[in-house]
Amino acid sequence: MRRITLNQGNGVDETDFERRLDRALAHAPVPVISPEFAVRVAAMVPARQLPRAQRFAYAHATMIFCGVAMMVALLLLAPHAAVGSRFAIAVEWIVCVQLSVLAVSATLAREFWPLR
Predict the structure, then answer these.
(1) Which backbone phi and psi does 6 adopt, to 5 degrees?
(2) Distance (Å, whole) CA 102 – CA 99
(3) Cα–Cα distance between 98 and 13 in angstroms, integer?
(4) Digits of tens for pLDDT over the chain (116 positions)?
């Protein structure tokens, strides 16, 4: 770039300079990238690998453990619920609902996040 000094006898006035500066700033230069350069840069970029899904082994093991614990609780509550204890029947129903929710969530977990 050449340097222009204003009002030092070179014939450039301030309004002409402003007009040329406005024109230069109004038209942005078009970037041109040579195809050879693009090929070289693309060759240097490493291949993109897809991220691996983490194994949910602890979640699946916890689901299995809770399911077994709920089944044991149902077996232990069955004699008390057969007698007609309202509290035992209510707890048994709560454990049944929890077991059902656990079964649904385990099914969805195996469908969407399988162990591989």
Answers:
(1) -90, 145
(2) 5
(3) 86
(4) 556 555 555 556 778 888 888 888 888 778 888 999 999 998 898 887 777 666 656 777 888 888 899 888 888 888 888 888 888 888 888 888 988 888 888 778 767 666 55
81 exposure class (CB count in 10 Å sphere: 0-12, 13-18, 19+): middle
Can you state the angle between helices 86-112 and 57-83, rounded to 10 degrees? Answer: 160
* Residue whose tokens read 């929890």: 98
Q: What are the residues whose beta carbons fall under 8 Å from the beta carbon of 97, sequence distance 6 or more? A: none
The alpha carbons of the chain give a radius of gyration, in whole angstroms, of: 38
d(CA 102, CA 93): 14
